[in-house]
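Observation: inputs received (chain + magnesium ion).
Thought: call the complex predictor directly.
Action: predict_structure
Action Input:
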Amino acid sequence: MIQKPKGTLDFIGREGYIYNYLYNYTMNFMHSYNYEFIKIPTFESTELFYRGVGETTDVVNKETYDFIDKGNRNMTLRPEFTAGVVRSYIENKLYVDQIKKLYYFGSAFRYERPQSGRLREFTQMGVEVFGIKNAYLDAEVISLAYRFLSGLGITNLKVVINTLGDTESRLNYNKVIKEYLEKDRDNLCDICKERLDKNPLRILDCKYDGERDYIKNAPKTIDYLNEESKNYYEEVKHALEILDIPFEEDPTLVRGLDYYSHTVFEIKSDLEFLGKANTLCAGGRYDNLVKTLGGPETPGVGFAAGIERIITILNELEIYIPEEKLDVFIMNLDNSGFAFQILDDLRNSGYSCEIDYTGKSMKNMWKLVDKYNPSYVLIIGEDEVKSDYITVKDNTTKEETKVKTSELMDYLDMNL
Ligand code: ATP
Ligand code: MG
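Observation:
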């Protein structure tokens, strides 16, 4: 038997329904914030991710699915969306608009060690806002993420924020942190040794070294901000207060990807069953990324949320997700094809409708009724066809009514 690849999931039945529900929820929710949907390719040139996400990050260092296509090009399945969205933003000159607010929903791929909450194919929804640097936009993006999750009924969320400051502040800080970490060089893991030379800030985010006290006690970005960066951070916090978003500051928070500046944030859940995979979404400001990837200097801010982690919470907490009910199930006891005409009419009029295809016993059909739980059951037999009426059973009250075929639609319109 062929099995699914490690770290992938099938969503079947109720989970399939919930996945689709979250997709629709995302579409509706984002409309209320006036963001535009963007669909980008599932794979891009490998180089995009090296330049965009950064070669000292976990994601690009060891987690990408790379392949050489038949034309000998180096390709990579997207491990995240931001780099691809920025590529598209530049390629399609979306910067002609002063501000561009985009959102996405789709699969991302990372060759991670499969464990609870960590998949090799997972789904991200997220947003990217380009063109304007304004503390209220950072706050909008954070509050959007928070309201997206709380709107689903997920409580006990923790919003954690920090700032990395602008380029000048980061350069200042990099010198200090490099000196500090240099003293610890021998204790660092191999990747962090490399990071020490290329991008020492990343060491604070390492899954191994980041846990050690020496690293935890390292100098903090917040103490090396210039005036402008400090003020910007204060403005973001003020805006969050105005939007009534509860948040905590964590001066040790840096993000795993290379492109961030100023605001960084994560939203975590304290639910125990999530274990270490308790970050539901993460993001921040990236004022240098568009330029790095060859576009004009353009500020940006965004986040990505992990849909599977959200599904785990919805399932574990048994959060109510409204099911769409089947309107009508047709029990067909006639051979003339009449029932199929009715079926087609109902579906064309927008009713959700199913018919029995098994052609088995009444008992069997009632089993299907139990399974589908429709609002109404239509019983169509030879008698009904001859005398031009249909027996309609209200599946809630169990009451049966005889309805003239020509009046069926009116009857359902009135009752559904
Ligand atoms: P971590 O530090 O936990 O590895 P990350 O920094 O790699 O996280 P991001 O790249 O910021 O995570 O991804 C944003 C969100 O996508 C995460 O908060 C999480 O919800 C989800 N996510 C990331 N990687 C995975 C994965 N392998 N499986 C499932 N969801 C994931
Ligand atoms: Mg990761």
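Thought: report the result.
Final Answer: The chain has two domains: 14-166+226-316, 328-415. Residues 84 and 280 are 21 Å apart (CA to CA).
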